[in-house]
Amino acid sequence: METVAVWGARTAELAAPFVEGAEALVWLALVFAILALAVKGRRALADARASAGESKLNLVYYAVEVGALVPAMAALAAAIAAAVAASGLALVGPGAWDGTPVWLVLLACVAASDFVGYWRHRAMHLAPLWPIHAIHHSDRAMTWLALARFHPLNRLITTVVSALCLAALGFPPWAVAANGLIRNWYGYYLHADLPWTYGPVLGRIFVSPVLHRWHHTRDRALSGRNFATVFAVYDLLFGSWACPAKDVGPLGIDEPGLPADWLGQTLWPFRVWLGLDAAGRAARAARAP
């Protein structure tokens, strides 16, 4: 009986991330379904059917993310923060944010994280790293669930770069955790099919769904723009802001040889790097600055 109880507890422990992930997925689906119906009416159902194939693949990515990547990346980020603190490499010492209003600490953390994320994202669009980031751009429907479609190496680079920079700036753990939640949930919203631009002023300060949709356009000249996640002002400052119209047109990429399944897409960057996919290698070369 004791063995059964131990195995039961172990099974429940292993299943916990999937249960929590499923609960979050249900709430996300409900929120975005209501938004879609409110904005698009009956057309929302037709759009949902049209994106079903891409959404099924995104669900596989989501399951891998909540079951393996999130726990692993959280542990890695915590280890990096501890290592930076212990080594004395932090640019801002512990306690430097003490006495600063909570809202200001959080705003500074999100702004710093988005600044770092902006340049990390731009780097992902260069030839050496494009094969792993191309996976995210392969979604041709791009619903809110497209945020789950990231190669594990893309997640790893994002985690390491963000954790190192935020730890070096001495942000308290609660601010780093809150920043992660804000950027993640805002990311789901940005990938939703919503025709919102925020107007000519706010649309140049904050990233809107339409602005980010232009980042996913199939037009290569415009897909290399709009790299920020929260603050569009970074794109404006560094010359990468572009929002020609509300109607973005065809989405996704025409990357030759890119598979349409999870395992194929996970292995594809390695095939490109090793020269085993000639078409993918040529597409990568075309991304060179």
Draw up the topology in text.
Elements: H1 2-40, H2 43-50, H3 52-87, H4 102-124, H5 130-137, H6 152-168, H7 173-191, H8 199-202, H9 209-215, H10 220-223, H11 233-237, H12 262-273, H13 278-286
Helix pairs in contact: 1-3, 3-6, 4-6, 4-7, 12-13
- Give the % helix: 55-70%
| Tally of discrete structural domains | 1
What is the alpha-carbon Rg in Å? 20 Å
Q: Compute the average pLDDT.
A: 90
Q: Based on helices, strands and strand pairing, what is the structural class?
A: mainly alpha
Note the beta-strand portion.
under 5%
The number of distinct helices, counting runs of at least 4 residues, comes to 13
Distance between the termini: 64 Å
Indicate the multimeric state.
Answer: single chain
**What ranges have pLDDT less than 50 throughout 5 or more consecutive residues?**
none
Order of helices and strands: HHHHHHHHHHHHH
For the largest beta-sheet, the strand count, sense and barrel status come to: none
Indicate the overall shape: globular
- Counted beta strands: 0
